[in-house]
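#lab-general

N.A. 3:47 PM
ok so I finally got the sequence cleaned up, no stray characters, all 351 residues accounted for. can someone with queue access submit it? mine expired

B.Y. 3:52 PM
send it over

N.A. 3:53 PM
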Amino acid sequence: MKFLPFALLFVIPLAASAAGERVNHEGRVLGPLPVVKAPLLFNTPEADAVVAAMQIMPVNSPWNEDISHRPLLENSDAMIAQIISDLASNRRTLRPFYEMNYVLVPDTQPVVPIKFTNYSNQSDLEGGTDPVGMYPVPPNLPVETWPRGTGAQTLAEWQEDAKGKGGDRHSIIVQPGKGLIYETWLTKRAGTAWQASNGARFSLTSNVLRPAGWTSGDAAGLPMFPALVRYDECQRGVVEHAMRLVVKRTRIGYIYPATHDASVGRLKDPNIPAMGQRVRLKSGFVIPADWSKEEKAVLGALKKYGAIVADNGGFFSISVCPDDRFREGCFDHLSKVGIDNFEVIETTGPR
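B.Y. 4:20 PM
back already:
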């Protein structure tokens, strides 16, 4: 595995209370971390118990930074205006997108070959030989948008893309015991063989970035798992991290914590956001009292932790787990939040 070391990036241990309890960056007592003994899908109470007890990335991770008081970028207004004008008139509000899911696997999960078809030279092979990596892929690996966005298809059918629906088909595997995340893009199973465009491994306990210029499962070279809006945290009423943000266009170059750009047309306009650009909801936005607890959790986090530009797409969207336990309509009000309620802040970390 290759990572790019930054002298300014270091690990701060998980906080502990006077009683020796594990306390996360938000100040929430975590309790003992359950041992994962078999693959656990994201939409189960068993998985909820594990992720609720995890410190997901270090306490000083860019995903866990309180950026509510960060200074505005000088061209924040111009950049927000550009983000708005890039989108169709009916897409100029926040969109919660049910997309990224995940599976938790035990430390003993057998590794299997996964062939990387596009960016093997920017992939973590984990003991494999280019272009094949060895990843702890379980038989029940969920692929992006399942089950909320895949209709009546079974997981097995969706893994094979039996109906040829295509799409980005991201996958996320988390090994809590080892503190590791494995993420892929364009993931597909053919019989018993797995393939993906590329693969990336991240540490849950380190802020070390991918090598400069390297992509990941995400276009910006970022991990996806720390950014997801999950069912368990929404039920607690607090999203405790920054979110993954998609905008229509990004410019050439990237800023911390991104390591890769994907500018279609190699755009240079400084008012077009870069991969890694940090956006937050304005503090003056009043969250209506009658909105759902899920909506309040998301909007509160967008004020405190913000969102990080991670990909190009046709919406101004954040990634929500496609958990079938979310109540129908529980995020509907978010589509009333116009993009002009957001602002762009100065980046943190190395420049």
